[in-house]
Design brief:
The chain is an alpha/beta fold. The protein has one domain: 3-Layer(aba) Sandwich (Rossmann fold), CATH 3.40.50.280. It is 44% helix and 22% strand. The chain is built from 5 helices and 5 strands. The protein has a 5-stranded parallel sheet with strand order 2-1-3-4-5, with helices on both faces. β4, α4 and β5 form a beta-alpha-beta unit.
């Protein structure tokens, strides 16, 4: 085993419902050797606070109920304001296809919709480190 620091991912969600995918992704990342911090339901300001406190490399933001463009836009602005724009963001959940390019244009690394293979999420995280 190398001395390389493990990748740390903070997983958060915009609501408490529909959480099965959230836990499936967490388990898949952990099984791939990625350290996962389960943040649960948080608003963007709390997400940034937790990400800084936990010294994560990535934020995985599951959005099912909120307005993805508003939530992600706020998160990305707060990361920049806080001086941590190097924390990468991936988004998953129910994202209207018409919003995917808009969200990626905000600086999000990747957007994953229902049915995405766990290995694709793992590869995105590992390849982006």
């Amino acid at each position: 085993m190398s001395n390389q620091k493990k990748i740390r991912v903070l997983l958060v969600m915009d609501s408490l419902g529909h959480s099965t995918g959230y836990y499936v992704v967490a388990k898949g990342l952990q099984e791939a050797g990625i350290e996962v911090v389960l943040g649960g339901y948080q608003i963007p300001r709390e997400i940034v606070d937790t990400a800084v406190e936990e010294d994560v490399d990535f934020i995985g933001y599951r959005i099912m109920d909120g307005a993805p463009d508003i939530l992600v836009g706020r998160l990305m602005s707060l990361l920049k304001e806080r001086g941590v724009p190097d924390i990468k963001v991936i988004v998953g959940g129910i994202i209207p296809p018409s919003m995917i390019s808009l969200i990626k244009g905000m600086g999000v690394r990747e957007v994953f919709t229902p049915g995405t293979r766990i290995q694709d999420i793992v590869s995105c995280v590992e390849d982006s480190k």
